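Incident log, structure service

09:12 report received: a user says their structure output differs between two submissions of the same chain.
09:20 pulled the input from the user's history:
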Amino acid sequence: MRAVWNGVVIAESDDSVRVEGNHYFPPESVRGEYLRDSPTRTLCPWKGVAHYKTLAVEGMMLHDGAWLYPHPTPLARKLKGRVAFWRGVTIEPVTTDATG
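09:34 re-ran on a clean worker, output below:
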């Protein structure tokens, strides 16, 4: 899967985890140069406290366009550190050219 915003690939991995319709990308697959810390936090009863990131791409900002669970609950441990996107970030499958 691939996360794209403002025409730029923010994350790409064949190891995303899908939970509640969202793809969570492993941290090493996310291009950190496009993420800025945000003070926003939300609480999910079963996943824990989400920390948000603002996307900054080519002079454009998408406030709180990404989130992650740095310390998820035991039920959501597979999401630890993985990053999900929303608010206009396109999540799409990566297609490969069959001609090789």
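09:41 both user submissions now match this output. Likely a transient worker issue. Closing.
09:42 reviewer note: The domain at 2-92 is CATH 2.170.150.40 (Metal Binding Protein, Guanine Nucleotide Exchange Factor; Chain A). The CA atoms of residues 3 and 42 lie 22 Å apart.
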